[in-house]
Amino acid sequence: MIQGTGSGAGKSLIAAALCRIFRNMGIDVAPFKAQNMALNSYITAEGGEIGRAQALQAEAARIAPTSDMNPILLKASGDMGSQVIIQGKVHSTMKAQEYYSFKKNAWNAAKESFDRLSQKYNLIIMEGAGSPAEINLMDVDIVNMSIAKHAKAPVILVGDIDKGGVFASLYGTIKLLGRDSRHIKAFIINKFRGDLEILRPGLEMIKDKTGKPVIGVLPYIKDMGLPEEDGLALCHGSRFTVHGSRGIKIVIVRLRYISNFTDFDPFLYEPDVELIYSNNPADIENADIVIIPGTKNTVKDLLFLKDERLDESIKRAYSKGIQIIGMCGGYQMLGKKIYDPHEVESNHKEIDGIGLLDIETTFEKNKTTCQTEAEMVNSLWLIAHSNKNNPYNHELSAMSYQPLKGYEIHMGVSKGDIGLFRIKRLSVLHSPIHPFTHSPVLDGSINGNCWGTYIHGIFENDLFRRTIINHARKRKNLSLIDSAVRYSEIKDRAIDNLAHIVRENIDMDFIKGITGI
Question: Which end of the chain has fewer CB atoms at under 10 Å, N or C?
Answer without folding.
Answer: C
